[in-house]
Amino acid sequence: MDFNSIDHRKINKNLMRGLFILCGVNMGKVKLTITYAKCRCGYHNTGDSFIIEDICPPLCHELWNIIYPSIYTLLNDGTLDYGEERVKFFDAKCPDAGRVCIHGEVISD
């Protein structure tokens, strides 16, 4: 087998999943749904959705930078502040005047 033909991302992803399973860590999944879109570049559309496990989805980097801390928390079985509660979802807006709104929630396999 040619070393250059190996898909290293796939191998690394599978190795990490295996290590998490061996250590008893359950990495979750987060579903992102675009709930409103008036994006200047037309990159996002209302209703678009993505399942996040460990790789960044095709989102605008400005929006991703806003939501990544919440996604990371949820992927690692954490909870987020929501008023007086702790929850496993979030809603966020694009830093460009809220032109894109997104909802993220933990989903089960």
UniProtKB/TrEMBL annotation:
Name of this chain's protein: TIGR04076 family protein
Family annotation (NCBIfam families): TIGR04076 family protein (TIGR04076)
